[in-house]
Specification:
Largest sheet: 4 strands, parallel
Number of domains: 1
Strand order of the largest sheet: 2-1-3-4
Number of strands: 4
CATH class: Alpha Beta
CATH topology: Rossmann fold
Distance between the termini: 7 Å
CATH architecture: 3-Layer(aba) Sandwich
Number of helices: 7
Structural class: alpha/beta
Shape: globular
């Protein structure tokens, strides 16, 4: 099963001076097995806020190995539905988080994240979260 890798995991591995070894290992395994997926908004989040042009270029080039999932109207509509479902149950979230949930469900992907908000979404949405021992 493939995994949609959230910004927080990429950041832990690629943007920190001392990357998290456990996440680095697991992401490396997913990459080796061609099970990593990314979407444009995650790529944008990763590349935003990098003040050093050399670091930006290095990260941009590293991410170039991964093709974005093409986003379609159905992804955005489903993201809106997911937002409405969660909001009706008192759970708030960001537009990009619900887009991640939508793409994961539509494309049959796990979500690899450390963001605890996704645990809240999972109470109401049919998402599957990648746990380090899941796949």
């Amino acid at each position: 099963m493939k995994a949609l890798v959230d910004t927080c995991i990429w950041s832990q591995v690629l943007r920190r001076k001392e990357p998290n070894n456990e996440f680095t290992q697991k992401l490396g395994e997913l990459v080796s097995d061609s099970r990593v997926e990314i979407i444009g908004p995650i790529r944008q989040e990763l590349l935003s806020g990098i003040s050093d042009p050399n670091q930006f270029i290095k990260l941009k080039n590293h991410l170039a190995s991964f093709e974005d999932i093409a986003l379609r109207t159905e992804h955005f509509v489903k993201a809106s539905e997911f937002s409405n479902i969660c909001r009706a149950n008192g759970v708030q979230g960001s537009t990009i988080d619900f887009l991640i949930c939508s793409v994961a469900v539509t494309e049959n992907l796990f979500i690899f994240t450390t963001d605890k908000d996704f645990d809240n979404y999972a109470q109401y949405l049919p998402i599957r979260l990648y746990k380090l021992f899941t796949i």
